[in-house]
């Protein structure tokens, strides 16, 4: 049945590639009817799509997985196909023969059709699963609390197509699982009899890394049965960030326990956004930057910019830029005094800049250079790093990613002077929350909050 579905999906993909080319011809002249080379190009892309799409997992079952991720995979695969088509045309010295506008229409139309076809198919399947059809029955192995968590997740996502039908509680003293919802077993033999008798499709092992003997026993028990066994290791007590996830290292899956929770793909997206945002901000704010520079120069003797060494991603040291807000002064070697309320070192212009955070604007140059990000944990002076790293738990993990001009801690009020350890602890808590829950939407929320309400704050002085 699965093979037939795959074959049908591939036939539909070929049809959609041809349909996209036909629609593009109707929009921009009838190129398909004028030249056989156009049809040859279309057939090449259709054939190459059939060859490359499986590598992107677009024909796999996406039951319970993100449909947005599926759309992204289809888009990426199709763009690679079309990029190869362009390379082919260039190699054959035929790139001037094909209309660029028609090729663009064809690429966009077919990409939209490929994505729409899959989303509609999944919507139909989701409706069917929500009505109780096309379900996979699941048996869960784990402690009572672990089983209860996954039971609630299954119940909250009925369209994913899973139905919990049995639980093996590895800790009978933990009675979190409500036995009225699903039968609860306390022996492998009883669970195995139930799975075989009731045609259960899936066995999910919610077990810790220390329960290897039970894992091996269950795999041996169902070695000759058509039951999908999925290991969902419980690493909550070991992982630094919640939901640290699995990465691929040299073709081997690895679970991040103590590492940056942001994937390489997420870091790349963040990097691209940072550079574009910083370049746009510097161009748009150029008159303001010049005006502030002029005001700083007139306010007191000394340079316009204040430069200081800070730690960036992975502890790399860089030079941070700010508009100078204090009069020139000297500090004792190895010490650094934070600005306090009514600090006599702060100039009148500097006080305004610090209160409105305008002194931070030159850090867009740091973002453009790749030292910083627009959003991230705020970098501290090296002297403060040395101090707080010893007394604040998790402090060093702020440097798993690039520091930011603004951050989750700052928009929640944790900015300015940290005259008590408790203030720094709360700031670090917010920074680690940001790392564990990063998303592009969260970055947009922080930037919006900074622009709307975060520029002026009572703790900024």
Automatic annotation (TrEMBL):
It is a multi-pass membrane protein. GO terms for molecular function: undecaprenyl-phosphate glucose phosphotransferase activity. It is an enzyme of class 2 (transferase). It comes from the Bacteria. Keywords: Membrane, Transferase, Transmembrane, Transmembrane helix. The chain crosses the membrane at residues 7-25, 37-56, 68-90, 102-120, 276-296. NCBIfam families: EPS_sugtrans (TIGR03025), WcaJ_sugtrans (TIGR03023). Belongs to the bacterial sugar transferase family. This is Undecaprenyl-phosphate glucose phosphotransferase. It comes from Paraburkholderia sejongensis.
